[in-house]
Amino acid sequence: MRRKDKQITDQRLLEDILKKNSICRIAFVDGERPYIIPMNYGYEGNEIFVHSALEGKKIDLLHVNNNVCVEITDSIDVVTSEKACDSGTKFRSVICQGTIHNVIENEKKIEGLKIIMRQITENTNWDIPEAAVEKVAVLKVKIETMTGKISGS
Predict the structure, then answer these.
(1) Which runs of E-coded beta strand occur in the chain?
(2) Can you tell me the distance from the alpha carbon of 108 to that of 126, in angstroms, rounded to the nearest whole number?
(3) Would you place residue 153 in the very low, low, confident or very high pLDDT band (cuts 50, 70, 90)?
(4) CA pair distance 26, 67, nearest whole angstrom
(5) 46: helix, strand or coil
(6) Is residue 2 scored above 90 in pLDDT?
(7) d(Cα 109, Cα 147) in Å, to the nearest integer?
(8) What is the percentage of the chain residues whose pLDDT exceeds 90?
(9) Which of 9, 62, 70, 87 is in the most buried spot, having the most CB atoms within 10 Å?
């Protein structure tokens, strides 16, 4: 990272950002171009879980190349000024590089869905019907590297 003064090196702060948010952006490899989409997510144990339809572009892409980049930003505050150079944005962000995998076993899919629901609602007591599990893909990002940045206080 070029701006070392803005780099987040505290692992607890990186995890705090991952645990306190519910929307991530995942960039997939689509040939020579990135394909990025916003998704609800759940974070636990150095893994990010998302859910998807069983078919579609992101499912097709992960079968060709399962390398992804995940971005999460919070504490966003746009600061304006009379001078353009004094304007800016305060934020905290985390970028994770890793691989995304389709979770196959229904029991593991249910665990992933519960992690997502806990992240979104803070509720840990969910009954997820087996019939619903059959109709959804649960994807797991195995985080390989993680960097963070903070701008402003």
Answers:
(1) 7-8, 23-30, 33-40, 42-44, 47-52, 67-79, 88-103, 137-151
(2) 14
(3) low
(4) 10
(5) coil
(6) no
(7) 28
(8) 69
(9) 70
Beta bridge partners of 88: 79
Backbone φ/ψ region at 122: left (φ over 0), alpha (ψ -120 to 50), beta: left
Partners of residue 2 on adjacent β-strands: none
| Residue 10 in tokens | 């505290």
Tell me: pLDDT of 24 over 90. Answer: yes
Residue entry with tokens 């109709």: 135
3-state DSSP helix/strand/coil percent for the chain, to nearest 5? 30, 45, 25
Assigned token pair, 33: 């171009």
**Amino acid identity at 141:** V
Backbone phi, psi, residue 80, to 5°? -110, 160
C-alpha–C-alpha distance, residues 47 and 124, integer Å: 18
pLDDT attached to residue 49: 98
At 81, the amino acid letter reads S
Tokens of 72: 């999460």
Q: Output the pLDDT for position 70.
A: 98
The larger pLDDT score, comparing residue 88 to residue 150, is at 150
